[in-house]
Request: fold
Amino acid sequence: MITQAAVLHPGADSWAIEDIELDPPRETEVLVRIHASGLCHSEEHHRTGDVPLDHPTIGGHEGAGVVEAVGPGVRSVAVGDHVVFSSIPTCGHCGPCVTGHGNLCDEGRWIGSGRQLLDHTSRHHLGDTDLNVICLIGAFAYHTVVGEASIIKIEPDIPFEKACIVGCGVPTGWGAAVYTGGVRAGDDVAVLGVGGIGASAIQGAKFAGARRIFAVDPVEFKREQALELGATHVAASIEEAAELVRDVTWGMLCQVTVCSMGVGRGELMGSIMELCAKHGRVVVVNIHPVKDPPPTIDLLNLAGYEKQVVGSIFGSVNSRRDVPRLLALWRDGHLDLDRIVNRTYDGLSHVNEGYQDMRDGRNLRGVLDLTQWSPR
Ligand SMILES: NC(=O)c1ccc[n+]([C@@H]2O[C@H](COP(=O)([O-])OP(=O)(O)OC[C@H]3O[C@@H](n4cnc5c(N)ncnc54)[C@H](O)[C@@H]3O)[C@@H](O)[C@H]2O)c1
Ligand SMILES: [Zn+2]
Ligand SMILES: [Zn+2]
Reply:
């Protein structure tokens, strides 16, 4: 079939809207008509070259839609089901999956390949060129074909524009605070960067019982939103936050710090460690440019105060449990997705405008509304 997708060509500085040929789903694959797609900062790293791509690639890994066809052997969904993509596939039977670390599923090693899990070939084509798909998904499109391991069924009354961000940004931020960070009742928490990830980390920390939440962002609008979402204090820079945190906590500092800035910077790690309490944890979520010099941190201080620096991918979540759980928390009023999705864009052609709004600090999370589509 012919559909439309936003493709990043190597070296290009914007997304190109292309008519592409999409093959039918093969064994264990699912064809999804995508209705909404979130604009996560991770695609931006590919556009800027922080994490370069060497092959034309369809972007988008925060998507929600309706199953339009299934290949042989698909058991967990049927035609007509509403689904969200899991930004990391979970096979359900590798070592990490069976020990409760679905975010580290062994199939995740194929994400960089951009091809189908089944046979490592492409279902997406632009003329004679086989296209890659981000995160094995390719949700900047009206349709895609993905492996069943990337599909999670959701309840049919949940609006697509809310559901889609529960495929990456929300679990990544919420889980970074709750699971990777292990926020406990009474903890003081810092969240550095209030985009889709940070806005979810603030809410996770609050729900887990944080006493004070220090949100840091240079953009005033983000600081205002942080306060609405549960932050108790805000600062415009890490330096400003260091003074505030020292003052408010009487020098006890933060048990958990979540790094969710748009671009991670190694040179900031030293100041970030100064927010960290004895036995505290700094959770690195944001992506650092591959060519950035490695950070310098004071390892004597790290040892002396038993500080921890831990990485976090997809919020340490098990998406098959946590996506429905987070949507249930939204339904019950414990998770505010409405405020995070503060701007929607009507149609795929607005993808570059949406990312410009992200760069300009206007979006907590921009979402493409892809409901309207007609074959040309
Ligand atoms: N580890 C993972 O699993 C994972 C998953 C998704 C996204 N990410 C990464 O997390 C990061 C955040 O993603 P997002 O979609 O929320 O981005 P975003 O662009 O929506 O938000 C980033 C925020 O950081 C703020 N910021 C920039 N510089 C700052 C600084 N020095 N101090 C404090 N705040 C600063 C920006 O103003 C912005 O509000 C990105 O690097 C993204 O690629 C990681
Ligand atoms: Zn993402
Ligand atoms: Zn697995």
